[in-house]
Write a structure and sequence with these properties.
By secondary structure, the protein is of the alpha+beta class. The chain has four helices and seven strands; from the N terminus they run E-H-H-E-E-E-H-E-H-E-E. It has a single domain, classed as Gcn5-related N-acetyltransferase (GNAT) (Aminopeptidase, 3-Layer(aba) Sandwich). Helix 1 crosses helix 2.
């Protein structure tokens, strides 16, 4: 298997990031979002993810395999050192170590940007995602019951965290 590189995302990556994010929306395993997003949405999202709130991509032979981002957890100054996390992997590259590599690199970027903690929200039924996070040292904090609605059903959301 060819290796891949992890690098800071550029504006040229937004279409690949959008495609992979929409896969996550369609698969109903990673987000409560149910409507796929368009280029306009992604351009705004990318502009909001500059500076401390980095976006990384995993790339092999010019193809983006997945991405990860640090997101604002809260705009209150007391939480300045806490970031929320997103990780999305292209369907064809899941289970190949892309998520682990992205997460490891993103944690380093988080430390460099003065974050001391990363939190994430995942579905209790997303075993693959939980396996990744647990392997990388994240711990379950709790579960928000009936946190959202997807396909007309209430969905629980698990909270996980890692101190850096």
């Amino acid at each position: 298997m060819a290796t891949f590189t992890i690098r800071q995302a550029t504006s040229e990556d937004t279409q690949s990031i959008l495609r992979i994010y929409n896969q996550g929306i369609e698969d109903r395993i990673a987000t409560l979002e149910t409507e796929t997003k368009d280029s306009s949405y992604m351009e705004g999202w990318f502009q909001d993810h500059q500076g401390r709130f980095s976006v990384l991509v995993a790339e092999r032979e010019g193809k983006v395999m997945g991405w990860a981002s640090l997101n604002p957890y809260s705009h209150r100054c007391a939480y300045r050192g806490v970031a929320d996390l997103s990780v999305y992997i292209d369907r064809s590259f899941r289970g190949q170590g892309v998520g682990s590599s992205l997460l490891k690199s993103l944690e380093q970027v988080a430390k460099e940007n003065e974050f001391y903690k990363i939190v994430l929200f995942t579905f209790p039924f997303n075993q693959e995602g939980q396996g990744l996070y647990q392997k990388m040292g994240y711990r379950q904090v709790g579960v928000f019951e009936k946190q959202g609605v997807m396909n007309g059903e209430f969905i629980d959301v698990m909270i996980m965290e890692k101190l850096l």
